[in-house]
Design a protein that fits this description.
The protein is an alpha/beta fold and 476 residues long. It has helices at 11-23, 30-46, 48-59, 63-88, 126-137, 151-164, 177-183, 197-210, 232-244, 261-279, 295-304, 355-363, 378-387, 423-428, 443-446, 458-465; strands at residues 92-93, 104-111, 114-118, 141-145, 170-172, 190-194, 214-217, 223-226, 256-259, 309-312, 316-317, 322-323, 326-329, 346-351, 370-374, 392-395, 416-417, 430-437. 41% of the residues lie in helices and 16% in strands. Strand 11 (316-317) and strand 12 (322-323) form a beta hairpin. It is globular.
């Protein structure tokens, strides 16, 4: 059984213990929440070297990338919560109708209870701990399930988290798909999952049996339109950084480029120059380029190199799970590399004749997690934004919208449901409870709505409760 730090306790025992703590109100106070979030920040601060080492072992992730996208982004959410939680927790008073003029109407943000957070392997610290910040801030107990594919990070987090968080309110469980299946047989009050659309369907099916609400952060093929008017060198820099960061194993990385044949002729040499500047003549020797997480994914990504024509890169080394930063041209819509999320250091370029054709191509496919558009003409960027649908959007760069914690992050349709980051994480893990507290007096006014009904009262009641369009008069 894949349980960490709890001996041979069953999943049901762990859920039961956490539920008892939640029912006792242990997680509800502002002081408790702040203390746990501070401890999470302390975990990051005191274990940077160990986190770097674990991610180096799992993904050959450069310390620069670990610091930026694993530790710093989590710290941002930790600090946002510490700075703002007192305000977030306040009741939100709302506008009232005439009938409730003397009453109190507000939204109370209640915790759901015991939540399950299932992380992913490509950013195993970020994708587990940022949702956790929101769950703690909202006052929940939580069971955390790190990905078993990033083995070193899974072990590190399962060792560290119980040392920094209250073990009566938070638990870590480890294991593979079979363990996750057993875990999902228990009743949770909310499930937050990050992973593939196929597994997301399994999670949602299990949640449906218990009528458990879910947030699903999934993936997809993120299009990137490059307009003919672009500065091809700066475009190549930004495109290469966002595509080949973490060896392309990023859910919001540009998955393919849409551009004209003319732009392709400029972009490919610019990308070649950029990749040499980034990683040297032999990227395999670069300390700044990662590796594929395991053999199965290595074989999967390597097989995609058979699509189209290799214009840049294409080398691989099975022993070290290395695949070179690769650019493909002459791909067709039916090629495997254009059919599945790549999740590796491969960038196909698909040629189109116009902006309209690019938008039509995007809209023929599932709605992605992100769409990117490069153009010096704001009207072109606005056209892509206005005429497509995606979880997020970034103009003239890749992935940088992820660095803005006041923006919601999440998918739509096949790329997921629900949002998080910053206050959006707090809201995701909070039940927004509508509350009306009425006066015990003035009973005479209430008789207007009691049986036996009098038709003469209906006008007064509608006027007192119905919202009118601005500028309209009330006719009694």
């Amino acid at each position: 059984m894949g349980i960490s730090n709890f001996g041979m306790s069953s999943y049901a025992d762990i859920v039961g213990r956490l539920r008892a703590s939640f029912d006792a109100g242990k997680t509800r106070s502002l002081e408790f929440r702040l203390a746990q979030i501070q401890s999470l920040g302390k975990l990051l601060e005191e274990n940077k070297a160990a986190i770097n080492e674990a991610l180096l072992q799992d993904l050959n992730k450069p310390a620069f990338e670990t610091e930026l996208s694993e530790i710093s982004l989590v710290n941002t959410d930790v600090n946002l919560a510490l700075n703002n939680l007192k305000t977030w927790m306040k009741d939100e008073y709302v506008e009232k109708n005439w009938a409730t003029t003397f009453d109190s109407a507000f939204i109370r943000k209640d915790p759901f209870g015991v939540v399950l957070i299932i992380g992913a392997w490509n950013y195993p610290v970020n994708l587990l701990l940022i949702p956790l910040v929101g769950a703690i801030a909202a006052g929940n107990c939580a069971i955390l399930k790190p990905s078993e594919l990033s083995k070193s990070t899974e072990k590190l987090l399962s060792d560290l988290l119980p040392r920094y968080l209250d073990q009566e309110c938070f638990a870590v469980v480890c294991g593979g798909p079979q363990d996750t299946t057993q875990l999902l047989e228990n009743k949770f009050d909310y499930i937050f999952f990050t992973g593939s659309p196929n597994v997301g369907k399994i999670i949602m099916t299990a949640a449906a049996k218990q009528l458990t609400p879910v947030t699903l952060e999934l993936g997809g093929k993120n299009p990137c339109f490059v307009d003919d008017g672009c500065d091809f060198k700066s475009t190549a820099n930004r495109l290469a950084w966002s595509r080949f960061y973490n060896a392309g194993q990023t859910c919001v990385a540009p998955d393919y480029v849409l551009c004209t044949q003319e732009m392709r002729e400029k972009l490919v040499p610019a990308l070649k120059e950029t990749l040499e500047e980034f990683y040297g003549k032999d990227p395999q020797q670069s300390p700044d380029f990662g590796r594929i997480v395991n053999d199965r994914h290595f074989q999967r990504v390597k097989a995609l190199l058979g699509s189209g024509t290799v214009a840049i890169g294409g080398q691989s080394d099975e022993k070290t799970k290395y695949i070179a930063p690769t650019v493909l041209v002459d791909v067709t819509e039916s090629d495997p590399v254009m059919q599945e999320e790549i999740f590796g250091p491969v960038l196909p370029i698909f040629t189109v004749k116009s902006l309209d054709e690019a938008i039509a191509f995007i809209n023929r496919h599932e709605r992605p997690l992100a769409i990117y558009a490069f153009s010096p003409d704001g009207k072109v960027v606005d056209a892509v934004l206005a005429r497509t649908s995606s979880g997020g959007f970034c103009g003239n760069d890749g992935m940088m919208h992820m660095s803005v914690p006041t923006l919601p992050f999440g998918g739509i349709g096949n790329s997921g449901m629900g949002v998080y980051h910053g206050k959006f994480s707090y809201d995701t893990f909070s039940h927004h409870r509508g509350v009306l507290l009425r006066s015990t007096g003035m009973e005479k006014l209430n008789t207007l709505r009691y049986p036996p009904y009098a038709q003469r009262n209906i006008g007064w009641l509608i006027s007192a409760t119905e919202t009118k369009r601005k500028g309209m008069c009330n006719i009694l």
